[in-house]
Amino acid sequence: MAKQFPKLLTVAALAVAAAPLVAADDEKSDAALSQVAINVEDLDRSESYYRDVLGFVRVWQYPPESETPIEIGLAAPGGGAGLVLARLSDEPLPEGKGRYGRIIVNTANAKALAAKAEAYRKRSGAGSEPRFITLPGDNPPTIVFFRDPDGYEIELYQAPSR
After folding, report:
1. Which of 36, 105, 118, 160 gives a 20 to 30 Å CA spacing to 49?
2. For residues 61 and 68, what is the distance between their CA atoms, to the nearest angstrom?
């Protein structure tokens, strides 16, 4: 059962994510995830990683005209919430920060993105080897986990084929 716990947790999280948002008084919520911000060790390295592996592109930076921004806003090629890479000080990042959560990316081709993540890891030594999760069933989704250069976990989710 211990080995199946992460699989069950992932399935439960996906079910919750797919459920319609309803406020306590049964009115639909108009809340939408706009951006996810993460603190990174090196803005250039992290921007390169998300561009090369997932195809994200820079859409803004702060300060706008600075040669040394402290935040970079990225957009995913398929739309959805943006990703903000932040480097707010020269202080070391907190130990174990990658345990606080993960970035979930919906994709139609998880294997291709996992291959890009692995190629990036081999080329640069940054990030982790992709780990595929196999769920039971005749037509399960494809789920892949790996870590970016700063230790944040990324989950690729590819819906089951129809």
Report:
1. 160
2. 9
The model's confidence at residue 10, banded by pLDDT at 50, 70 and 90, is very low
Report the pLDDT averaged over residues 34-56: 90
DSSP β-bridge partners for residue 28? 22
Distance CA 102, CA 72 (A): 19
Cβ atoms within 10 Å, residue 97: 14
The angle, 0 to 180 degrees and rounded to 10, between the axes of the packed helices 43-54 and 110-124 is 140
Q: How would you classify the pairing of strands 153-158 and 102-106?
A: parallel
Classify 54 in phi/psi space as left (phi over 0), alpha (psi -120 to 50) or beta.
alpha
Q: Strand 82-86 and strand 71-75: pairing?
A: antiparallel
Spatial separation of the C-alpha atoms in residues 77 and 91, rounded to whole Å: 32
